[in-house]
Design a protein that fits this description.
Elements: E1 3-21, E2 26-40, E3 45-50, H1 62-76, H2 84-94, H3 99-117, H4 121-124, E4 133-139, H5 144-156, E5 161-165, H6 170-183, E6 189-193, H7 200-209, E7 216-218, H8 224-230, E8 238-240, H9 247-256, E9 261-265, H10 266-269, H11 272-284, E10 288-292, H12 298-309, E11 316-320, E12 342-343, E13 365-367
Helix pairs in contact: 1-2, 1-3, 2-3, 6-7, 9-11
Bound molecules: magnesium ion.
């Protein structure tokens, strides 16, 4: 089987509500999505998506995905999409780094490989748990009242896991954490996501002031060096996502004990093939996981859900449904959707969901 055509679409995905990170430092209103269709000489078609969370969040750029695909396309055409490692190596040779540009092609290859084998991607990867995965909310609010309002909105849709965005102001962060913990319901999972918003001294002041609450923080500081420096000085479990980019990052975090949880972002780390290795490092070191898209439609959420299904239930805390934050739906309601705060693995072969191609507009590039 050979890849015979790569078709690229650019779609804007507006957010239903403006979204703030790092205590208001960063505002997001619309996501730049790239959808990629791979066609083969066997008649199978696979879909991939790459949607960074804007271009100010981490080093990833919507137009950069499309430029990267233009560079890599001649090296990917003609390869067998079922040989995902061959495709991965071809992309890494053609364009070192730029992981976020590679994930949509990797995803589309897995989609085709699953269809060719007649099984969902998760099963093809060797472990497809059918236990529904809790969806983590994304509470990008600034004040206590806003935080309560957004969490209530999610609770009404069945959410039992919440990622509350904090960072930037020590007193406000401590007050918001204490308030959320005071209204936390039994069984709810809450992660306080700093998104690199603290300096070392800010991190230590908040983490030590809330030690009695036994809460967990995500990405408290900018770099792994920062996280390593404060590690001996506080008692809180830490999740790392934005600085978990390469397999070498994963190995360092595991070996040096820098985090107890990996937040694996599929687009950020370069797709399912590379993310699966991070999963194995995590499992080998007693590290639990959140798995999520960096952003995007139901396609990106579904990609993450497949990886989540290959993680033992007890080690997979939650996934994400960015689709719930958008005003447009490119798949016409198909694919995994929020059911009582959970996503259910699709049983169709491959990814299990494809976009409504008519909703994507004209392609911005076609490579043959
Ligand atoms: Mg995070």
């Amino acid at each position: 089987m050979k890849i015979t055509r790569i078709t690229v679409y650019h779609v804007d995905l507006p957010l239903e509500h403006p979204y703030w990170l790092s205590g208001g430092r960063l505002k997001f209103e619309c996501l730049d999505a790239t959808l990629v269709k791979l066609e083969t000489d066997a008649g199978l078609t696979g879909w991939g998506e790459g949607t960074p969370w804007g271009h100010t969040y981490v080093p990833a750029h919507g137009p950069g995905i499309r430029a990267g695909i233009e560079t890599m396309a001649p090296f990917v055409l003609g390869l067998d999409p079922r040989r995902v490692l061959d495709v991965e190596r071809a992309m890494d040779l053609a364009l070192p780094g730029h992981l976020y540009a590679k994930s949509p092609i990797d995803m589309a290859c897995w989609d085709i490989a699953g269809q060719a084998a007649g099984v969902p991607i998760a099963d093809l990867m060797g472990g497809g748990s059918r236990t529904p995965r809790a969806i983590a909310s994304s509470v990008g609010a600034k004040t206590i009242d806003d935080t309560r309002a957004v969490m209530d909105r999610y609770r009404q849709r069945g959410y039992v896991a919440h990622s509350v965005k904090i960072g930037g102001d020590v007193a406000r962060d401590i007050a918001r954490i204490r308030d959320v913990e005071s209204i936390r319901k039994p069984g709810e999972i809450v992660l306080y996501d700093v998104n690199r918003g603290w300096t070392r001294q800010q991190a230590l002041r908040v983490m030590r002031a809330t030690e009695d609450l036994h809460v967990m923080f995500e990405q408290p500081c900018e770099t792994l060096d920062d996280i390593a420096a404060i590690r001996p000085l506080h008692a809180a479990p830490v999740s790392v996502d934005e600085t978990l980019v390469t397999l070498q990052d994963a190995a360092r975090i595991a070996r040096d004990g820098l985090a107890e949880v990996f937040g694996i972002k599929l687009n950020r780390v370069g797709g399912l093939t590379k993310a699966a290795r991070m999963r194995d490092i995590a499992l080998a070191h007693g590290i639990d996981m959140f798995v999520m898209a960096t952003g995007g439609s139901v396609l990106a959420d579904t990609e993450a859900l497949h990886l989540a299904a290959t993680i033992p239930d007890a080690n997979c805390h939650a996934v994400w449904a960015c689709q719930d934050m958008l005003t447009v739906d490119i798949a016409g309601g198909r694919g995994p959707r929020n059911i009582d705060g959970h996503l259910h693995l699709p049983e169709a072969p491959g990814l299990g969901v494809a976009p409504d191609e008519g909703a994507l507009g004209d392609p911005v590039a076609v490579y043959v």
